Amino acid sequence: MRNTWLLLGPALALELAVLFLPLFYIGFRSLYDWNPAGTSEFVGFENYYWLFTDPDFWEIVGNQLFYLLGLPLWVLAPLAVAYLLRESVWCAGLLRSIYFLPAVMSPAIVGLVFRSLLSTDGSVNAALDGMGLGSWTQSWLTHPDWVKPVVILMVLWAGFGTGVLIFTSAFAAVPRDLFEAAKLDGANFWQQFWYVAMPSISNTVVLWTMYQIVAIFLFMFGWIYVLTGGGPGLASATMDFSIYQQFIRFGFYGTAAAQTVVLVLSIALVPAIGYSIVALQRQFTGAQNR
Amino acid sequence: MSDQPPISIARTLIAFLIAVLFVLPFLFLIATALRTPADFALNPGGLPVAFTTANLQEAWVAANLGRALLVTLAVAVIACIVCVAVALAAAFWFRVNDSRFARHVRTLMISGYAIPAIAWLIPVFVIVARGGLAGNVVVAGVLNGVSSVPFAIYFFHTYFLQVLSKDLLDAATLDGAGPLTCFRRIAVPLARPAIASVVALVFVWSFGDLLIAATILQSNPDNYTLPLAATTLATKESVNLQGQAAAALVALVPVLFVFALAQKSLASGFGALSEK
Amino acid sequence: MNFRRNLLLVLLALTLTVPSVAQPLQPLQKMPVPNTAASIEVWSFLPGNYEAGEQAFAEAVASFNVKYPQVRVNITEMPYGTYFDQLRISLLAQSGADVVTMYGASQAYSYKDGLLPLETAIDPELLGSLRFVPENYSADGHLYALPTGTYGYALLANNDIFAQAGIDPNKGLATWDALLTTCRTLAQQGIEPISSGWRDGFLLETYIYMISSQLMSPKKLQDWVSYRIEMDDQLFVETLNYVVAMRDAGCFGGEASLGRNMFDDTINRYSTGKAAMVTISTVGGAGWASGGVPNSSGHLLPMVPTSPNPPMLDSGAEAGWAITKWSEHPEAALAFVSHMAEPATQAAFARLTNVPGNTQGSTIEIQSDLQRQLLEFYSIPANHTGFAVFPLPVLAVIERNAVPLMSGDMDVTRFLDAAQRAFRRFR
Fold this sequence. Notes:
A: mainly alpha, B: MetI-like fold, 77% helix
């Protein structure tokens, strides 16, 4: 049995070395005026003081929370469409494949495509102009009121197909007669959706929601970096983008380290929140069943 | 099936209209890459009239896309090998060892998924750079692979729970097979569909990665990946929109290929994402 | 297995990362180039900036190889947008090019842990013959980049559009108030007065350089070069108020300019007749912009009313050349950097790029009235710039906040607060 460690060892070592131990290192460095290319001086919590007194940091935290407003959309849109595609749709499989296409694409490339589509002199505005809708043209990516909704829609575009896929397989596991019964009771599409479909796959809905929350903290770099560069100002910047900027562009290594620590700690909170929601829900449904 | 409800025209129409939103940007991309700059300038919102492959050729040369394609493939393949090799073994270990301790370790290793890449990447980069390994394709590949290990362990473990029963393992052990033999002879062949899913996913993720490439590989212009080459090309003052679109198109073709080949595997992999 | 080895290295490094020992900064010394074969890598964003840029660099390398045939020079063109990120990563990795292009002293200072001080290594005679050297010394008293070339910010006016609008550009751009009136008149007629794009932020930097230079007396310039004043100084408040005044007079066109870039949107729009004026930085750029508008004339940005200076323009070194600490052939790199600054090289370079050198009396072959006009501007003795002094983090903040400032979402106070915070952190 000794050599079974050969099975776990490599994965454990790699994860510790690459994913976990560096977090302690960055935590340690967040207490320094860190200069990876020179000498670093111990400064205690000064980096955190800089960070928390910097209005830019709070603007980014605000952005991150604003993006969460997209959650109902990111969850309900694929859910509704998965339900719609469940039956009576011609070529449903092909459509699901088409929706799924963005999931395989590089966020950087998606960002490039949408950047040229949405730029001031880009195709969307030109097409609107061409259709006589000149007053609808917008600075989609450089107006602070527009840029966050645009990013939210981009996230929807990219994650929609995956969501549809997941909800489709969840629906497949629900007994058909449940829907049939509702239909016989005279429930219309939306009533069936709200009162039958949603509750029957509530676990999947909660998990997909959690996944989207985590994704908003984790996977935004490629898009923001290419699509908006965090702008205008910092109106669309996310934490990961901002840490990269602090570190690479500005050379403010210590603050970047402090911000990283804050990001990791706040993500650690999300599953905690999620678990408590799930636990509460279980308790609730359990009480109902009793 | 006979009890299949009839096709609803309204539903189909809505679904197809949504599909248009997913197809249009691609058509736009292809059209932009293939039309002449003059044609685009004349009518950026309209249909292209004059076509050319000059943009593709120019972008290919300006951003060294041929080399970038090879580098990206190397990164993605290394990532797949590293990720599948270590995660499959670890998942098997977790299937065999179900002690409390093992379960805690499993939870820890799967929770690595929620660590933002930027958090570990910066310190890892600093250390890698001190070791003189910045700009190294193998390092970028390994890091891409490791970043997917938590997900892969979760995926393989779930899969083993379904296909690898305790009875089967016990029978093999009775026959005198050690854990390593069990792994090689039984687990790996059984896991083929799961391996296909993980390979497809890790390939797609590492092929599209920008963050690791921008950090680890940026100091070595010879080792740019496609996303990195395409985005830096886009910041070049002399390169027009058509050139960017051309670079984006080149970067898309391989993943579309994988998509067409391994759609089923991809789908089941993505499905697992939210079943945690 | 390769990854095992890498893993070991990572683990090893992780346990060994104690703060490294400070190495005293040793300026590079003069030294001969060995006769053995060497190869140096040069990173620059410049070749793409000029029409015959690649050829100009190829010729500079060829003439270098006449003197040093044993040194192979490989020039890699880097895109500007990610150039400084690439340098940062290179600095942290302590590897990459031997020679890098830099804009100004403070940008170089941001990377001082990766660059060699050059002041004692460059031939004093050559150094003495170059303009703009003093303002390219960093605050720590070292010269990290050897300046070459000359730029100067001026306005180009489309005489046809001006005629159409009934304005004589010479009168309409003579004084600050006349400029604002001209802007209002043009804007009323639906003409974009100055071709503008704020998205990349470079145009705002340009106007900050232009106007703050006007406002800097020689003493104030000295204060700025030595960081005795900072971004919260009244000088910059005034500068930005003037930029905002131009904006409010409609000089920069409508909201669409927020989504455009300075490069290349402003020049493209001017050269296709979509704006009455454009801001240009080099004679070469003027030639490019006026390509589609032959009837163009050059103008100084009118002096702001509170300027203590005679009519002048913001003018300084086009770029600088720095040598990295990790270069394995610093002698060859030094020889190359010196070669790029030498009068003969700069003269040859100027012929192809239309960028006048920064050697005394350097000029270009004049092909048009416009060029003659601009070169006259360049030779105004009162010209100077504080451009080289802006630290990179401050510039990054200015670039980032250009759109909010110009759209009115951010006022001058908040804008300068953000810039000052970056300045403080930088110091």
